[in-house]
Amino acid sequence: MSVEFVLKTENLTKHYGGVHALEGANFELRKGEHVAIMGDNGAGKSTFVRQITGVEQRTSGRVWLYGEEVNFSGPLEAREHGIETVFQTLALADDLDVPDNLFLGRERTFADWLGPFRLLDYRSMRQSTLDALNRTGVKIPNIRNTIQNMSGGQRQCVAIARTATFHSKLTIMDEPTAALGVQETAQVENIIRTLKAEGEPLILISHNMRQVMDLVDRIVVFRRGRICANLRKEETNGEDIVAYITGAKTQPGYEDAL
Amino acid sequence: MADKSQGTGGLTFDKSKRSWPNELNILLALVIIIVIFEIIGQTAPYMRGQSFLFDTRDRFDSIFNEARLQIIILQVAIIGIIALGVTQVIITAGIDLSSGPLVAATAMIAMSFAQTELVNSNPNPKAIFGVWAMDLPVIIPVVIGITFGAFIGAINGTFIAFFRIPPFIATLGMFLICRGIALWWSNGQPVSFPTDSYKFIGSGMMPVVWFLSLAVVFHIIMRYTVYGKHTYAIGSNEEAARMSGINVKRHKVLVYMIAAMLAAFAGVVLSSKGATAQAGMGEFYELFAIAMAVIGGISLTGGRGSIIGTVLGAMVIGVIRSGFTYVKLDGSYQLVAMGAIIIAAVVLDQYRQRNRA
Q1: Cα A180 to chain center, whole Å?
Q2: How far is it, in rounded angstroms, from Cα A193 to Cα A214?
Q3: Count of H-run helices and E-run strands, chain A
Q4: CA-CA distances (angstroms) from residue B111 to B75, B148, B200, B330?
């Protein structure tokens, strides 16, 4: 398998009992590429992501990450392999501040011989947090604030900045701006542009057509559990995509999509 | 540190912008309670102008009534040691009800290995074991006691983390088991006559020395180590902690072990202080330890609270106890007042939280 692909799936399938939520998905993501996944509710977008990130176990099919076949037993293992996911429900600790959340589970420490009582390197973590937030253009009044004192947009930015801080091998965002206001959405989009500029691959699930056309290179449309189109941004437009989402059109090569 | 606004839109790390620490509120409450007692002492007719806090005997070398200050802290020091552990457990959104009986069980077990062979040239009348367990170096009963605590804590933690038993139920069961162990150990007989070196552990102001030095150690651990950070993270959002790669189950077992080891050490100090161990020791200690943490501003839903807060909470209870004795009010009033203060502490804290949100 060529290492040219960041992620490749072959016949990825997930059945919940008799419900065929995902059926034979063949998906490829190249280095540095940003791909959007679109589709109606229940089209299989989130199901697809859950199979990749190990949140659920797939029924059948194979997944390669950077040419290496992977079979994650849980989200933690996926993370250890460099897949960072921003879920719709944010995984932040409300009583901790921004650097604590950014570095949760991978704190910088010294005196490591103390085992679980090794000391935290607060200064370095704070500096890196400021760097990361500056790099991504996130505006947070005071990083020593605990998360519970922040607006929804600021929380989302922290969650996304976390993925951006660690140079992940693959970032997946599941509707990152669904609950945000205009300004906050702009901030999140800025982070995504930063990731693009740094050549970090991204899978973005979104319903926002403008956002998708603005940010990504390629759009993959899901319909009723199957991929029904794989479109380059330059060769398509909003109406076209809607036609694929609703089932008015099906791209040649994907005729088995219903 | 000066304001360090960064390029893009006021991104700062400014120490002065940190929110008003919760601990200052407790300190304020502590001062208010002391002032109330001082005013009652100076003005109430039957008190004849005594002072609660200051020296009234016109000695050159002292400003404060040192004896009272010592009693205030001495009478809460042993429960305070338990409260340091309970604080950590509650920060993970758990609870530990087993600490009081664990104090008794540990006292019995540790004391059995700390007995002297001869009492006034006669054989020890309360001997549990043979001569082989007599006059051992003091480290042996201490290590045995703390190891027993670690064992009990590991069982607590294992049932809570791996078998998903609610902490309340798991430690309630252990509450009864430990009391049972304490009674069974010597068939309800007290264990007495320890060696002099064992007696030293709890003599004089030693309980206070243990309490305050352990408080400093655990303050540093909770604030500056990975262990502390993960403890807060688990209490704050267990799912997020798990997703961040923290081994939540193993960490919980460690927290319950440390809490139980602290309770066990409190048992050692208590038995040393009284030079005897009895199965009924430590009654309600677990509840007073929880009360100290609660007055100290801990949140029973986890994620919030601190060692400093708990130490101040312990001081509040100590001041109320000696204050009521000082104004010559009966013990029954003490309990009512303490109960009211615990409830008031939580009410005020909730009010504060709501206002901030």
Answers
A1: 17
A2: 10
A3: 8, 12
A4: 21, 13, 13, 34
Q: To the nearest 10°, the Cα dihedral for B229, B233, B238, B240?
A: -110
Among residues A187, A189, A188, A178, which one has the least CA distance to residue A88? A178
Which residue from B6, B10, B237 is facing A92, i.e. has the nearest CB?
B237
Shortest Cα–Cα distance, A160 to chain B (Å): 14
Residue A127's SS3 state is: helix
- The C-alpha atoms of residue A25 and residue A45 are separated, in whole angstroms, by 11
The residue with tokens 């209870």 is: B317
Do residues B84 and B298 touch, judged by C-beta distance below 8 A? Answer: no
Which tens digit of pLDDT belongs to each residue from B203-246?
999 999 999 999 999 999 999 999 999 999 999 999 888 878 88
Tokens of B318: 């100590």
List the one residue out of B259, B260, B252 whose CA is nearest residue B102. B260
Residue contact B236–A126, C-beta within 8 A: no
Element holding A90 (H helix, E strand): none
Name which of A122, A128, A133, A181 is nearest A157 in CA terms. Answer: A133
Domains and CATH numbers, chain A: 5-246 (3.40.50.300)
Beta partners for B191?
Answer: B277
CB A173 within 8 A of CB A205: yes
| Interface contacts (A, B; CB < 8 Å) | 112
A64, β-bridge pairs: A8, A69
Q: Where are the domains of chain B?
A: 77-282
Asked whether this complex has an ipTM greater than 0.85, the answer is: no
Say what angle helices B248-274 and B226-236 make with each other, to 10 degrees: 110
Quickly list DSSP for B237-288. -HHHHHHTT--HHHHHHHHHHHHHHHHHHHHHHHHHHHTEE-TTTTTTHHHH
Sort out which chain B residues have CB atoms less than 8 A from A104's CB and list them: 229, 233, 240-241, 244, 246
Are B226 and A100 in contact (CB < 8 Å)?
no
The answer on pLDDT for A191 being more than 90 is no
Cα–Cα distance between B67 and B69 in angstroms, integer? 6
| Contact residues of A toward B, CB < 8 A | 75-76, 79-80, 90-96, 100, 104-107, 109, 114, 116-120, 122, 126, 130, 133-134, 137-145, 148-149
Q: Do B11 and A134 touch (CB under 8 A)?
A: yes
Q: What confidence score (pLDDT) does residue B4 get? A: 41
Q: Tell me how many degrees the CA angle B342-B307-B258 measures, rounded to the nearest 5.
A: 105
Q: Are A216 and A233 a contacting pair, CB within 8 Å?
A: yes
- pLDDT tens profile A225-245: 888 889 888 888 888 899 988
B249 reaches A (C-beta below 8 A): no
Classify the C-alpha dihedral B91-B92-B97-B99 as positive or negative. Answer: negative
Category of A137 on φ-ψ map: left (φ > 0), alpha (ψ -120 to 50) or beta: left
Q: Which residues of A touch B235 (CB under 8 A)?
A: 95
Q: Are A19 and A188 in contact (CB under 8 A)?
A: no
